[in-house]
Amino acid sequence: MKPIAKIVGIVLFMLLSQLEGVYATIPTGETKLGLFIRDDFDEFTVEEYASFEARYIDMLAKLKEKDEMIQSDEVFLKHLFYKVHRKFLKVYEKQALFSEIFQQSGKYDCVTGSALLALFLDDLGYKYHVVEMDYHVFLIVESEGKEFLMEATDPLNGFSADAKEIEERSEIVRMDAKRINEELALAGVSSDFSMGKPNKVSIIENYVGMKELAGLHYYNQSLKAFNAEDLRTAYQYIVIAQGIYPSKRIKNASSFIFAMAFSN
User: Fold this and answer.
1) Residue 190 counted as domain residue
2) Tens-place pLDDT, residues 202-248
3) Which of 12, 112, 179, 212 could form a disulfide with 208 if both were Cys (CB 3.0 to 4.6 A apart)?
4) Average pLDDT for residues 55-61, to the nearest whole number?
């Protein structure tokens, strides 16, 4: 049985973490960048954040001008995808912070790259949804009665207007997830952090929005901190993620990380 002092300490830590998640300062300004950039996790000055917004606003103005000039949505969406890639998405790095897109490194991953594209699409008034899968995220944009793929991690061929190709590429992601989850199941591990040996192998395929994408960003950062054995930061991130997007795997991950953090 745990000593009372230790139990009290755990409870206080949980309460403080919850309060940090609710009251932490989130940058506010002329854009929605604050959904993905929090000054309690990122290291930047007010001036640096203002420069992030300035770059975003400048690109948005150029895209709006181009959108008015181009009559075809397909042509414009293709332009948007590759223009944003050239200007912002420089180096792929797994579990990169969203703010790194605006820094000299230009680091991004599937979540943060998709987030930047989604922000532009949202401000330009295009209808889209985020496809959340076990280990990957991409966008489907709907316009002119068609669907268009935007896969941020593919800078050369990440845009597609071909329905057959979109389905084929989606199926590849599904099969990869199924293969990985089957391997985890053989090792007695559930891919969604469920307790106990998995009874069956399942995969995630959800259509979500920008809010949920922000939750996935903080979920990724939690896993990154956990793998680095920084359990306090991992728990702080997962609390934020769960508050934004309380999906089954995020809630399970929250319970798992808490149990690991306070198991001793």
Assistant:
1) no
2) 899 999 999 999 999 999 999 999 999 999 999 999 999 999 999 99
3) 212
4) 97
Q: Do residues 120 and 135 touch, judged by C-beta distance below 8 A?
A: no
pLDDT category at 80 given cuts 50, 70, 90 is very high
Rounded Cα distance between 109 and 135, Å, is 11
Q: What is the average pLDDT across 68-97? A: 98
Are 234 and 128 in contact by the 8 Å Cβ rule? The answer is: no
Q: Give the C-alpha separation, 222 to 220, whole Å.
A: 5
Does residue 245 lie within any of the structural domains?
yes
* pLDDT value, residue 198: 58
Position 127 in a domain: yes
pTM of structure = 0.87
Quick check: 137 and 216 in contact, CB under 8 A? yes
pLDDT, tens digit (0-9, with 9 covering 90-100), for 222-232: 999 999 999 99
pLDDT surpassing 60 at residue 18: no
Residue 234: which domain range? 4-161+205-261
Positive or negative, the Cα torsion across 244, 249, 252, 253?
Answer: negative
Give φ, ψ of 230 to 5 degrees.
-100, 80
Reduced to 3 DSSP states, what percent helix, strand and coil does the chain have, rounded to the nearest 5? Answer: 60, 10, 30
Report yes or no: 238 and 219 within 8 Å, Cβ to Cβ.
yes
Report the candidate in 135, 168, 171, 165 with the shortest Cα–Cα distance to residue 153: 135
Q: Tell me, rounded to whole angstroms, the distance of Cα 229 from its chain centroid.
A: 21
Tally of domains in the chain: 1
